[in-house]
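User: quick one, fold this
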Amino acid sequence: MAAPPLPPQEREIRHPARERVIGHRGAAALAPENTLAGLRRAAADGVAWVEVDVQLTADGVPVLLHDATLERTTSGSGPLAAATAAEVATLDAGSWFGPAFTGEPVAFLAPALRTAAGLGLAMVLELKAPPDGAALARTALAVALAIQPVPRFLVSSFDLDALAAAQRHAPEVPRALLADGADGWTAADLIATAQRLGCGAVHLDDALATPQTLQVLEQAGLARVVWTVNEPARALALWDQGADAIISDRPAMLLDATTRATPRS
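Assistant:
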């Protein structure tokens, strides 16, 4: 089966310098992850795209959070899936990172998308799927598409059910297959799965991003985004080998490195 054409939003991250670096969870090394403060820092650092993690509260409201539990990045405790949106809204999501961020709230998806749009940022929404990837995809997409004008975003996930649900419910929204080398992916598997789910890109971890894999994915018409890279030398090597964009905790450092990288034709 032929590879699907790249959706417009995926094509946008191929060449211009500021589109080649995606802030990881905002700018995770410099501001608390998955917060509005992180979005503001990423925008100040000059990126055009940020990646964030999306999950549902107990009452089905999408929020930005990476872990299944609240302890590491908020003042709360226990599973996010057991907390209501009202309870999550009272939590401090900044103090753990540093006193300058004390009182930073947990970011909810709709305000985060509006804030990002106001800052000129597009967003990669990573759907942290368990326990129900399809429900998360439906809810997150409904929230995002209800905003007018619709913000620039795409969805990514490790969870194939979430990507399939996104394909069914909002086929116009670009999708990216997330892939971890620890899961035993081959290049052929990545291509077949991405094509089946109508994904225009594969977001692969650094261990998977070998020159051969990058080349094969390019030949299949898939954009290649590599996570999570914080060393400029490694970023330069990946761009030279064909990576379209890199997700980084330190986006400003990698943006500076793009001045030494020659975009591929």
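User: anything notable?
Assistant: The radius of gyration is 17 Å.
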